[in-house]
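REVIEWER CHECKLIST
Item 1: Sequence provided? yes
Item 2: Single chain? yes
Item 3: Sequence as submitted:
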Amino acid sequence: MAVGALSAPAATEISAANCARTSVGFVPLKDFGAGSYQGFEGGLYPGGSNAPTRAYLAQGRAMARTVVPRGADGRPSPSGRIALLSIGMSNTTQEFQAFIRAAAADRSTSKRVVLVDGAQGGQDAETIKDPGAPFWSRVDERLARAGVTRRQVQIVWLKQAIARESRPFPEDAGGLQASLRSVVGILRSRYPNLKLVYVSSRTYAGYATTQLNPEPYAYQSGFAVRWLIQDRMEGRLVGPWLGWGPYLWTDGTKGRKDGLQWTCDDVREDGTHPSPSGQTKVAGLLLRFFKSSPTSRSWFRS
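Item 4: Structure as written out by the authors:
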């Protein structure tokens, strides 16, 4: 495997994480079943399902078959590369850096895939939805350092939030959805061979002690992702195929049905950014996802 933020809170804003808040009582989207949250159905996909429809999955698989090694000019080439780019904030870059290390140590991953961390601290969704934001020129610099071009970028992992969100639900999730739509439009214009965009929402933020992106906004960001993907499924958004990356939110130590928990040891002092153990936990979820998803395993594995 070749290797190629939310901004941190001010020092005066940071205090020890609130380790007593081990649960907020929300149901993870993938555990809803027939339930709802403030009148909105759960599930990662429409109809309360955690899987895309058969027809939409078929579209994703067809798109995955077009992911092939490409030269710097974007044309298929046996000696080319497949660039997988992360886009997001500080949490995203911290988690993706851990993923890069985990993938490099995994012998089953393809040596044609180049992981490039384009995510940057202090760059929330409201900042990067501007195509002229300096964020995008810094992404270009990182691609160049990794030895790949824009035309070799075929997959993106997108994880974003809005810093210091204060709107009530569903306005907060709707605002993030709109910003994510703008970001996907920028991705489509910058990367002509982009085929697949996997989107994740926030991790648990019950331990947060700042207003950077606490609960319930971290949890509710999952609805923004769900609605964004539904836009693509129903033709209101065009371009690359969109699907969930790993769903990262779980109700603290109460966890979720698959056993995932998020402990106070998984966060830094602000309760928001992942600690080394939290980064490793997300990296493991990413690695498992890309190795097993029917739209990624064909090009991610060697």
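Item 5: Key structural point noted by reviewer: Helices lie at 54-64, 90-104, 125-128, 134-145, 171-190, 217-233, 276-292, 297-300.
Item 6: Recommendation: ____
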